Structures are given as C-alpha cells and as structure tokens.
Amino acid sequence: MTPHPYSPDSNRYDEMKYRRCGKSGILLPEISLGLWHNFGKATPLEKSTEMLHYAFDHGITHFDLANNYGPPYGSAEETFGQVIKNSLHTYRDELFVSTKAGYDMWAGPYGNWGSRKYLMASLDQSLKRMNLDYVDLFYTHRYDPNTPLEETLQALVDIVKRGKALYVGISRWPYEAAQFGYDYLRQRDVPCLIYQGRYHIFDREPETTGVLQQAKDNGSGFIVFSPLAQGLLTDRYLNGIPEDSRIAHGGHLKKESLTETTLKRIKALNDIATRRGQSLAEMAIAWILKDDMVTSVIVGASSTNQLSKNLNALNSPAFTKEELEEIEAVCKQMV
Ligand SMILES: NC(=O)c1ccc[n+]([C@@H]2O[C@H](COP(=O)([O-])OP(=O)(O)OC[C@H]3O[C@@H](n4cnc5c(N)ncnc54)[C@H](OP(=O)(O)O)[C@@H]3O)[C@@H](O)[C@H]2O)c1
C-alpha cells in the first residue's frame, strides 16, 4: 500500500477535554480509542486507517492495544503499526500508546499469564508489530495467582528502566494484589500510572470492590474499558441482533447476554437518554465521566460514524438528581 496522504485537522485539540492521570504529568483524553475488536485482519486497512485518523483529528491521543487484540492475535497491533508507518509516525510525540500482556498469546508455557519471561518477550513482539521503539504505557493485563507478584512487578520496573515503556499500569487486579502492586512500584520509583477496569451502568464492580477509590488513594489514574457493555448500552440491539454486530460475530459478547430483562433495561435507559436529548451510547459514556475519579473512557467502535456519535458525550448535559435515581431504579428493579 502506498503511504496514506494525511494531514491532521489543525483544530484537533479544540473540542477534546483532557484529565490528569492520577498524580502524574500525563493528561489523557476523556475519550480514548480501544483496538480490541474492529482493527484485526478482517477489517480493511483503509477502514482502520480512517477510524484512527478520525480519532486523532478529534483530539483522541490515547490508543489502547494488547498483544492478543485482533482477531487473529497480534493483528490489531499490526494494523496500528501499518498506520504508524504510513502516516501517524510524524505525530508520534502527540500519541499515547498502550499495550498489554497477560492473556494467552502463543503456544507453550511462556506465552500466557505473568512471568517475566512472557512479559518481556511479548513487549518486544508488540513493539515490532507496531513499528514503535517504545510504548507510552505497558500493562500487566490480568492478575496471575500462580506467579509471585514480585516477579511480574519487577518485570514492569525493568521494562521502564530499559526504555521500552515510559509508564506501567495494571489491569483487572483484585484489590489486595493491586495494593501490593501500587506499593511495590512506588518503592522502586516506577509508580503505577493507571488502573484499567471494566465499569459501566450495568457493572459497578470498581465501586463495590473499592478499586476505583483505591487508584485515587494511590495517586494513580483509572481508565474504563467496555463502557458500553460491548454495545449493549447503545441502540444496537433495540430491535433485534443486526448481522454485523458483535453478538452476531460470535465473539466475546454472547447472545445469552441479551436476556429479556437486559433488553427491558436497555429500552428503559434508552427512554431516559431520549428525554435528555441524546443517544443511549452518549448517556452511558457521560454517566461514567461524571465521576472525576475516572481519568478516561476507552470506547470501542466498529465505524467512524459510531466513534463520532460517542464523541458527542463530551457535550453531554449534566445529570439531574432525578435522572441518576431513575437510572439506578432501572438497574435495580429488573435484576
Ligand atoms: N483490560 C482489559 O482486560 C480489557 C477488556 C476489554 C476491553 N478492553 C479495552 O477497552 C476497549 C473498549 O472495549 P469494548 O470494545 O468492549 O467497548 P464498548 O465501547 O463497550 O463496546 C464497543 C462496541 O459497542 C458498539 N458501539 C460503540 N459505539 C456505538 C454507538 N455509538 N452506537 C451503537 N453501537 C456502538 C460497537 O459494537 P458493534 O461491533 O456491534 O458495532 C462496538 O464494537 C477495547 O478496545 C480495549 O482497548 C480492555
């Protein structure tokens, strides 16, 4: 492919809002873009390029990846690497790129979980795929109950000391392990920049387990994944299961998630969003961003059109007390 002629919008920083990530020097956009689905081999490079350019043109500076994003594994990083090579490399210092390792990636005992062997090798592979010399942020993607936490955390420290990542983060670690991680990293002068966790209107786990408050108490940021419950908290499934949807593709969002109760809740939430003059997706993102302990929300999008709608959440009206109570009631009544 010939290099994509690209010149970013000169007004790209006008609309986006940026929040400080914990007690660090880093500002992250309120809306970041994740490449878990929709940027693998099945998506034409032209389409991925268009979405990434659109994001950057609108002030999205943070792109969230992992070694196994695709499908197939590695292909989202390859796509991103192609776009870096073809156009975005010029703007490398305006980008904040993260990747992760922790889930199964390659065969055998060294391609999964939290060993030093796996994390080090995986990051080297990710850098090659993405055509980058370093990532801005490297995460341990999940808690590994069988590897000593010291081993995983020391690998993160050494990754920073070797210049392969500027910052490190943890994703989906339970409260106690996370506290061990915050302390270990701080004592070695590589403070944990950010915690990545799932949080949305239907899933309040970061509130109930305390990991949201804990990140703040430890001077770390908190970044939210799957803010739209993988598409359930949108208008996508109001009238059935569209052929091109994540449920129809048969990936991580199962048909069984769309129970009758969930659909009723989605419809009730959609009515509240309509009254507020916005889409359900916009309301769901705004609902998360109302909490200033959240640094950024990583949205997924299967089209530029979806991404553009999600960006409207930045101009969302504030929630009234009554609206928040109504959202709570919808979630509670129909469980
Ligand atoms: N740390 C972790 O373990 C972890 C786990 C999961 C995700 N993540 C990160 O979080 C990112 C986001 O996760 P996610 O993709 O599950 O996020 P999500 O934003 O909850 O779901 C994205 C899906 O919602 C639908 N959608 C998005 N905007 C829409 C709109 N305006 N209208 C209608 N439908 C819309 C699309 O579904 P269709 O495809 O059906 O169009 C899209 O693929 C990932 O890319 C990844 O970077 C991290």
List keywords for this structure.
two-stranded antiparallel sheet, 335 residues, TIM Barrel, single chain, alpha/beta, 14% strand, 12 helices, eight-stranded parallel beta barrel
3D structure, described in words:
With about 325 residues, this protein is of the alpha/beta class. It has a single domain, classed as TIM Barrel (Alpha-Beta Barrel), CATH 3.20.20. Strand 4, helix 2 and strand 5 form a beta-alpha-beta unit. Helix 4 packs across helix 5 and helix 9 runs antiparallel to helix 12. The mean pLDDT is about 95. The structure holds NADP nicotinamide-adenine-dinucleotide phosphate (NAP). NADP nicotinamide-adenine-dinucleotide phosphate (NAP) binds next to strand 10 and helix 11.
